[in-house]
Amino acid sequence: MVQAPITVTVVDSNDLKYVTAATAVVNNAYRSEGGWTTEQHIVSGQRCTEEDMTSFITENGKPNTLLFALEQDNVVGTVQIQPSHEAPNEAEIGLFSVSPLHQSRGIGGKLIRQAMSEMKILGFNTAVMHVLENRPEILSWYKKLGFEETGERIPFVWPEMLKIKDLHFLTLKKAL
């Protein structure tokens, strides 16, 4: 079976039609039983609401930049570029997700590479990623993309959602 090509695009207000689909992609990637990226056994609750997604789209570029991976007219992945508050030359990769039904097709790598290209255009020189410390398979995947651990551990942003107490993020960085 021939699969439709995947396009990655910077989101604008015309993409409000994708709010429900994009929200479902994020929540399915992070909180469903399917896919190798799920955090269902680690974190409870939704990762993203439709209200959040609407805000991400309508405020795109102020200061965050949201990208969608589309297969024909269907959202199959998301990634967001978030400028660092601590270092003006760094931006974090966030809201990174690929639908479990579309994983292992190279979409995640395509999204990350496009996000890093956009970061360069926006004037950033370092990409930052925060990954749960108990996810060796995901840490390994990011390392294949050139990210390196910095040795920094930071607390999980929403500790009340953790199913495993005292879990931290590891900070990874990659020069652009």
From TrEMBL:
Record-linked CDD domains: NAT_SF
UniProt cross-references to InterPro entries, sorted A to Z: Acyl_CoA_acyltransferase, Bact_Acetyltransf, GNAT_dom
Domain N-acetyltransferase: start-end pairs: 28-166
One Pfam family of this chain: Acetyltransf_1
Keywords assigned: Acyltransferase, Transferase
Keyword Transferase: yes
Protein name, entry field: N-acetyltransferase domain-containing protein
